[in-house]
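User: quick one, fold this
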Amino acid sequence: MIGLLCNETGVPLSVEVFAGNTQDTRTFASQIKKVSERFGVGEVTFVGDRGMIKSGQVEELGEQGFHYITAITKPQIETLLRTGVFQMSLFDKGLAEVQATEGLPVCVAAQSCAR
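Assistant:
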């Protein structure tokens, strides 16, 4: 298994090789430590899948003041719906996919996208 840390543009900053049978969650603490100690950065967002960023890792990130982006499970989605956290009306708008040759355009609703 390979641990890869990249900057905001995707340029690799660090690569670490772990034993092939290592669970993702067991590699995470060393990566958090590496980012905080070696790179000395303040604003960091880790991006990982459900198998990598779980409650223990979220706690470790919080201790360092770091942020994260990950997928949520179906039961988590159901809880958010049941408790009213999700604003379902936001999904009523027609969405569109935008492909650009330059920059990173943001398009929320189909009618706001330039054609």
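User: anything notable?
Assistant: The chain is about 30% helix and 15% strand.
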